[in-house]
Amino acid sequence: MPPTGRAALLGASALAAAGVAHTLPGLVHFRWLRTSLWPGLAGIGAADHVALTFDDGPDPASTPAFLDELDRLGVRATFFLLGSQVRRAGGLTAELACRGHELAVHGYRHVNHLGRPWWWAVDDVRRARDLIEGAGGVEVRWFRPPYGALASSSLVAARQAGLRTVLWTTWGRDWRPGIDAGEVVAVVRSNMYPSATVLLHDSDVTSAPGSWKRSLAALPTLVEEWRAAGLRVGTLAEHGVAGDGDGDTRCLGS
Ligand SMILES: [Zn+2]
User: Measured on CA atoms in the order 40, 26, 173, 112, is the torsion positive or negative?
Assistant: First the structure.
């Protein structure tokens, strides 16, 4: 994903171009605003739980290493998948579900929705949802727009696809070049939030080459710190996100 400054700039320029209709959604880039006004959208959950989420996979070059490390740590996470990646890695999508992780929708294309017509976003999100559910054999329930750029078209698309939109409270800014695992840990630590939803990436398809290796290497320290603080670590389904009444993953087939 790389969401941040770049997304904020994209969001700001798109807002200027698109006018009032996009103003309010664009403001959710400001964490204090979305955590205080829209806690469900920010992914705020139970006080003793951290939701661990990964964007931009599945990626045969990197996601298997995350699966093994998460198994070793005894952690299940939520993976926001790209339909374009699922098309190339259907087996890996099924493996994510089989190994207990939650599948979610990040769109078919990794494209900013700001300024896109609603019908374009509806088609993109539905296409991704259908591919992920078909490959994973589970029903998906969450949507996170690329770059976290929440446009009016994103909201319409998620609603039409029967998905709930969730962003994050805390990121590792792990997409940047030239950083190490220690910096990913430090960034997560510095912007940790009560009842957090944490965003990392299990793929570098939209990030600096090899950036996933730093995210992977940061995981043991992060999980150890959260557990030492008395926090459970798991999926969004287990997180008790504000307004979420059903935490069970629903299977589509036998
Ligand atoms: Zn992304």
Answer: positive
* Phi, psi (deg, nearest 5) at residue 201: -130, 135
Amino acid in position 115: G
pLDDT of 136 strictly over 50: yes
Residue 247: Cβ within 10 Å count: 14
Ligand 1 center–CA 146 separation, angstroms: 5
What is the pLDDT, as a whole number, of residue 28? 54
The reported pLDDT for the residue numbered 36 is 65
Instruction: Tell me the average pLDDT across 106-130.
Output: 95
| CB 199 within 8 Å of CB 147 | no
Mean pLDDT (whole number) for 161-181? 95
Please give the distance, rounded to the nearest whole angstrom, from the Cα atom of residue 182 to the centre of ligand 1: 22
Q: Could you read off the pLDDT of 8-24 as tens digits, one per residue?
A: 333 333 333 333 334 34
CA 23 / ligand 1 centre spacing (Å): 22
Reported as a single tens digit per residue, the pLDDT across 51-60 is 999 999 999 9
Q: How far is the CA of 110 from the centre of ligand 1 (A)?
A: 6
Centroid of ligand 1 to alpha carbon of 201 (angstroms) = 8
Q: SS3 of 205, please?
A: coil
pLDDT at 251 over 80: no
β-bridge mates for residue 80, sequence order: 55, 104
- Of the CA atoms within 13 Å of residue 45, those in its CB half-sphere come to 28
CATH topology of domain 5-234: TIM Barrel (3.20.20)
Ligand 1: centre distance to CA 253 (Å): 28
Domain ranges of the chain: 5-234
SS3 of 158, please? helix
